[in-house]
Amino acid sequence: MATATNGSVGFRLLDLDIQDFRGIDRLHLDFRDETDEPIPLIVLAGDNGCGKTAVLEAILLLLARDDLLPQDAAPLKEQIRFGAENFRLQANLRGVDQPTPSDALCWRVYQPPSPFELPQFFTVGPNGQQPWPIPAGWRGAFRGDSWPRVEYFSARREPVRLGHTPYKVDGQQRDEGQRLANLKRLLINSFYRRNRRGSTTEKGGSPFERLQRFWTRFSTKNQTLDVLPASNNPGSGDEVVLRDATQPIPEDITSLEQARELSATRSDIPKLLTLDRLSSGQVALFAFAGPLVFSDRPADFVLIDEPEQHMHTSWQRLIIPALRELSPTSQFIVATQSEEILSQALSYERFILIGDADPRASLSSESGSNEAQS
Questions:
Q1: Same structural domain for residues 137 and 218?
Q2: Does 368 share its domain with 330?
Q3: Is the peptide bond before 159 cis (omega within 30 degrees of 0)?
Q4: How far apart are CA 282 and CA 211, in angstroms?
Q5: CA distance 146 to 301
Q6: Domain that holds residue 25
Q7: Which CATH number covers residue 131?
Q8: Of 6-10, 27-31, 334-338, the least confident
């Protein structure tokens, strides 16, 4: 395996080959346009069970980001296609933030390890861990100067709602269920930092302001993000709320608890809604946007499985363009069953996965269309 570090090189996926992974026998996908440049948006569609999620998670495994797989994902040995001895994954990537763009090869083979196999370590892992324990049964290489950065949103991403956010937090969890809690902590920090500094010099505004603009694209109400203490108990922590943008919070209202108690008798207190009390679709918007807004460096790849969950069709049409606006340098790879999302992609950005028995299989191989056999 070649040396890799966590540098600042940006990557794009050029193609992907999958063999004997889950229900996929063989699959080749080419993500280049007619000028041989990587396309910025890839939308995977197809019937249930055609392999859309398998493609996304194959990319994670290929980039050694097993840590981003759902916690209930099957062991790797159970993801070998029934009747095969191993699975093979391979892709070509292009480094785009270099004076001269260069391509890198990434490949991985998984075979159930021998009980006598000794653990091995690599200098720097794909998630920055030093040293990085190479997963058992892992055979592969990444030939490049740095590991790509990946953000993954699985279809099993129901967030945990934790109430108010305490001041002291020990660590930050990568679990998808904790995204809402992590976002609240970051929003609170950004809110107070913005207030302390006054106007921001950050490109595009502060993360708090960027998230506010993102929310405005979807909301039919004139609402703004705000932060206030959960109660007047100094140890209670803070809450992120959406409030009526036409009404500021009165100066004598110093906590959410106090606002609730007095709201029945005072018309000058705006309606306040905590992030925990939003609908599932509204929570999903913030869960998607948060990691993109607060990232130290934009993700090279943003992988999303079924972004349409819990969303009205009007929001489904908006969600991918809005997320791409938050992270314009990322390559988005989306698996969907939504016609609304598919309709927002250009023809060469759509990849329809079909089975060998599908009559279109022979037609796609003859015409060179973006219908891929799985």
A1: no
A2: yes
A3: no
A4: 13
A5: 14
A6: 11-149+299-373
A7: 3.40.50.300
A8: 6-10
